[in-house]
Request: fold
Amino acid sequence: MKMYLLLTALLFFPGITRAQSTFTVSGHIRDAATGEELVAASFYAVEVKKGGIANDYGFYSLTIPSGTYTMRYSYVGYKTKEVKLTVKKNIKLDVELSEETIVMEGIVVKGETEESTVTSTEMGTTQMNPKEAETMPILFGEQDIVKTFQLMPGVHEASEGNSGFFVRGGDADQNLVLLDEAPVYNPSHLMGFFSVFNSDALKDVKMIKGALPAEYGGRLSSVLDIKMKEGNSKNISASGGIGLIASRLTLEGPLAGGKGSFILSGRRTYADLLWKLSSKENLRRTQLYFYDLNMKANYLLGDNDHLFVSGYFGRDVLSERDQFGFNWGNITGTVRWNHLFNDRLFLNSSLILSTFDYQISAQSSGSMIDITSAIKDINLKEDFEYYIRSGHTMKFGFNVIRHRFLPGEFSASSTSEYNNLKLEEKHAYETAAYASHEYDVNDRLKVNYGLRCSMFTVLGPGTVFTYDEYGDVFDSRKYSRGKVIKNYWGPEPRLAANYMIDQSQSVKLSYSRNMQYIHLLSNFTSSTPLDIWHPSTSIIKPGTADQVSAGWFRNLAGNKYEMSVEAYYKDMKKLVDYKTGAEIILNEHVEAELVFGKGRAYGTEYFLKKKTGKFTGWLGYTLARTERKFPAIDNGKPFPARHDRTHDVAGVGTYVLNDKWTISASWVFHTGDAVTFPSGKYIIEDNTVSLYTERNGYRMPTYQRLDLGLTYTKKKTKRYESSWNFSLYNAYGRKNAFFIYFRDNEKHPEYTEAVKVTLFTFFPSVTYNFKY
Reply:
């Protein structure tokens, strides 16, 4: 703590004082219909050309000289509001914005106005309200905000239809996914075809793939920060949808006479319910479904205190009665307290719980066996924001995470011939302290610099094994409970700068170092229910990534369009991979199956977006390269990562025909992923054995797909609205390769043939949505 306070004082003390003739305007920016705080809403004092964006809880603060001002408040999809103020003292001003319901060409603010992509120091950052994706074409009729982000430059899906994603060459486990600040360790349902995020329960989603702000850490590549709705504090309301394979329902309303609110949102698939009508016994005995339950409540304790309690429960179930069962899921819980010390100092305190586990049950030799694995976290966070004065904002805080890893347990019934096995639990603490300062050097130059110091401590009880070059144990050492087994720490500097060329364009430069102390052990390219999280140890070192990026950003036609070009280079060290044929599940010596190396990723991202009018959408293109180098693989020769793609193009468009009909489309094209295919074969006792010579030395075929959507909105009344969403996935029926396998030709066994497996062609969906 002393080190943290010293760093804060040394780096961020300058400029704390302010002149006596300045005063502060502060408050919250909310939705006029529901009372929900609007994350990152803009505020701007026109006369002095000063402003910013509200924080994650809708709070804003602006310190300006005494005088008369026009305060302008705006948010995407809402009517801009202007308020005349005479500032002679500190003013608390809460503002409510109304949704923009009339589609017009040219609802824009001209000139140098509120914080935007051009004026902020953020790079590689996309913020989206789930409402923006409501009319987009969707697979299975289920809106998925994660799949919308997959259409952004620098982000791509793990495989067709999959909600897993890779960012700027990083692996799947290098993405920090947060739901109300709680890490979600497996963000996928149904083996990856759906994300666990029910869009009806979400308020705001933000992805950061460039320099991470100092308050984020623990992953190398990106942050996907998702905020749940607080609920309607003014009226009871209900909304939901009925789709082909799933239905959902959301209830929300006020608490304690409007001093608080709640939201309860649930979703469930029902393929198993339909199978019960089948004439086939095996289908009637099979269960296949997932469910989500999001809950949140908040209460105003006073003018300066706000309490939030939220939780998520999700589960996937696949089973056949008395034969086998497989279920997995996440549980998260967050208790947050917002406190205003004064009009310029804001505190958010959070206590967070996060758990992921899976259980496999199977009938074997007349006995039932079970395999389980889990990771459980408890996290305490303290985050401060200090609005020093206009153009000076400081953030600082700390967090402590207690990790508990349960690598695996095998148990069988008492009559079984199998022996029970439980791998040792692993315990660790991950701590960090940070501070950052955003500073307007002058009217053109703005910088955001910060430092995060993190530490990881592995604790006993536990056994540490030492392995020889062949992976065999030659020594071991036991540690008692609470004994320090291994300790790592490191500084993580962050820097971002924005130089305004003129009012409509800027250039940016950023650098960040990130460290990752926990690792995903998986033989798959994206998250699966069988993934195992493992801490850094004396053998597994923390991963590090240094990323430099530069970009040009411009707004066109009075802010109707925004465009950007970003280039990045990422250097990654202490990466983890696996020996050929590695066994991950229930392996006490899994560290002997691992190999370690480094990697790099570099590329350019091009983005053009139309933000207003009847036609909106974007076009993105990524030209990139991702490489890995492991001494134990291919004799240390660099090879492309599995998710390396040279070219990646995505286009999205939405056109409002009238107040009832909206059409939409999305198109994607990308280079095929790198893959390891056999280079030859040999015959042993009439059996064909494939010969593999290099890692990821081949390519899948190029991929392309067009999706179409049509939304019909019935005439809205004061109490009710509804719509129908029709989608056609893969509209021109291209048979894209999901995977390719090799087999002996039936007529000529001496020849080997490649067989392409495809998933979806001409896949239609329909969903009915309603709101009371």
About this structure: Helices lie at 2-12, 145-149, 271-275, 281-284. The mean pLDDT is 87. The chain is about 5% helix and 60% strand.
